[in-house]
Amino acid sequence: MKILKFGGTSVGSATSIKNVSSIISSIEGEKIVVLSAMSGVTNKLVELCLFFKDGNSDQFHIIINELKIKHENLLDELISSSENNENTKTDLNTHFTILEEILKRDYSEIAEAKILTFGETILTMIFSKYLEFIDFQNTLLDAKKFMVVANLEFPDTEKVGRLLKPLLKNTSSDALYITQGFVRIDKFNKISTLKRGGSDFSATILGAAINATEIQIWTDINGFHNNDPRYVENTHAIKELSFEEAAELAYFGAKILHPQTVSPVIEKNIPIYLKNTFTPEEDGTRISSEVTSHGLKAISAKDGITAIKIKSNRMLMAHGFLRKIFEVFDLHETAIDMITTSEIAISLTIDDTRNLDAILNDLESYGEITVETDHSIICIVGEGLIDEKNTANLFEILKDIPVRMISYGGSINNVSLLVSTQNKIRTLQELHIKLFENRNEPVLF
Ligand code: ADP
Ligand code: ASP
Ligand code: MG
């Protein structure tokens, strides 16, 4: 069984969806196809939820109408036979009626999750009907029946497998299943999401759950690039990444993958292929345990970082002090990303500031605390990176850009810098020139 995930832009129009169906038909064997919502739809649903929370029904009705027209137009372009078209439109209307019913009631987190995942719900339904219309036999699976993910950090993929396997009833060697990405059932048995961009994570959870042979993530770019193509010119697709390299880059902000995409499949050693829906003939990127090339691979950036400095004269190197500091973060269930220490101070970073006030309150007794928001971690990744002689060039960045923290040597595969977010793009661009362009021998992609 293969898992094929198609992201928002891959299913953003009738033409793209027709292209997706021809890609699926060209891939042999049993497949589960995981779809996102059409591009832009989840953003609209996020807006809708804000209006819903504020009780602004005029505004949310405008959004509902927009979404309805968008999906009806899609359906008209995909399904021309009047009978099939009418039947599918009836189903679509039923979904919209359910949405309207939710919006008549009070706001709740469950209502919000139902709304946010509505784009996936209706698109998978339309896609499945379209395939049926072109005689492409398929089974639509409701992800809420099996995507039980109580703990987002450690999904119980065995449980997902136990729930999913009985639903895979088609015995044909090229059985095709369609399901929704992004949605999950949480530890209270209620609908929730895998967070924004979560359909990639859906794909790898499913892959691990059923021991898939491979996972293909189809998107709008020809693989994992060596820097963020939204901010940096002359980036290249990388042919191969190790699981660890890809996990690090995704966690540290590379938008092409949801931060947790890689972890479910590492133990089972299931390769992930990143492919471009619009140029399927290109190689893309293979993420696996068998990586032959070493050295510098890529740079990524994660925003929304808060730096906390604890300065104390009585302190740091006294044994037990760091433990007490870390216990505060543990108590408030907040992960630390970067740490640097000196004799009298420790600086560390977090991205989840939900419990920041309580953390600061608890830290106060240990010394003088300084908090700086709006920072970005720049992450430079590659197997054996710090042994490479060109890596030293990265320190030239210190001449041009104020760097708040550097983490070097924690692993030989990674160096991280903390800069103010206003300097992020400049840092990415300058590092690209220093590390990829001004080097003695080219990086092999
Ligand atoms: P999808 O809708 O298919 O999930 P996303 O928009 O989430 O697609 O991810 C693809 C986008 O990620 C690309 O179009 C590109 O702009 C952006 N991106 C950021 N960093 C990278 C990178 N290192 N390599 C490739 N794409 C990247
Ligand atoms: N549709 C969801 C989002 O936009 C999930 C995804 O696309 O991966 O966040
Ligand atoms: Mg995405």
Largest sheet descriptor? 8 strands, mixed
CATH architecture of the largest domain: 3-Layer(aba) Sandwich
- What is the 3D form? globular
Compute the average pLDDT: 94
User: At the fourth CATH level, what is the homologous superfamily of the largest domain?
Assistant: Acetylglutamate kinase-like
Strand content: 15-25%
**Rg (C-alpha, Å):** 24 Å
In order across it, which strands form the biggest sheet? 3-4-2-1-7-9-10-8
Q: What is the CATH third-level topology name of the largest domain?
A: Carbamate kinase
Q: Tell me the number of helical segments per DSSP (H or I, 4 or more residues long).
A: 14
Query: What are the segments in which pLDDT stays under 50 over at least 5 consecutive residues?
Result: none
Number of domains: 2
Distinct small molecules bound, one entry per kind: adenosine-5'-diphosphate, aspartic acid, magnesium ion
The class by helix and strand makeup works out as alpha/beta
Question: What is the CATH top level name of the largest domain?
Answer: Alpha Beta
Helix share bin: 25-40%
The arrangement of helices and strands along the chain is: EHEHHHHHEHEEEHEEHHEEEHEEHEHEEH
By DSSP, the count of extended strands is 16
